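Team,

Forwarding the record for the chain on the shared tracking sheet. I've put the sequence and predicted structure together so nobody has to dig through attachments.
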Amino acid sequence: MSTQVVVLAGGRATRLGPLAEHTPKVLQPIAGRPFLDVLLHSLADRGVERVHLCLGHLADRVKDHLRSGTLPPQPPHITTSTEPGEAGTAGALLAAAEHLDEVFVVAMGDTHIDLDWPGLVSRLPDRALGLMVVTHHPSGPPPNVAVYDGIVRAYDKRGVPGGLTDTGVTVLRKEALRLVAHRTSSVDLGELFRRLVQESALAAVAVDSRFYDIGTPERIQTFQDRLMDTSPQYRQKRITC
């Protein structure tokens, strides 16, 4: 079966302020196109055939967009689920469990990185429950992961001196979700990662690619400038504007 990429797109995007009041983060305009369209186009170009969207805040807006007929040509096959209340990033995966493959790639719905997505699953070690994609490349957030002998030994969003940076992309075995399945309140992926680290069950693969996120208005502008500088279709848009 082809690789399944699960995109977490249900957050409230509080750092975007008024921009996200009526428009979910995943539909924020980037160079005249919703970020979701940019992301789906990139995934399709890399051979991804199936995408599952975990929705939450303003989920109906995203579903309306998916039905609008304005998606990129030949997008991946898309399925969706909607988390009950504010379940958190790991909680969204628990809510979507019936839609998930036994092994899938999870990605943050506000982050863009160029990867060999289908090839990631084959790099998951047999004894690991997860494989985190980390980068050497400065990407904005501080290094937050320590890796030794291919295994994540420390994970701290506040920063890990001398470490690498979590790109927001991780291969997971569905059975890993059992580590947080007992939680009845909101549960973040960070908690799942820390549990996996405790069990030495989170492997890592390091890349030298920068990732871009659209978590703040300033980062939206940075990513938009990057697209317009590197992509022919966006350079043409800049020329004609």
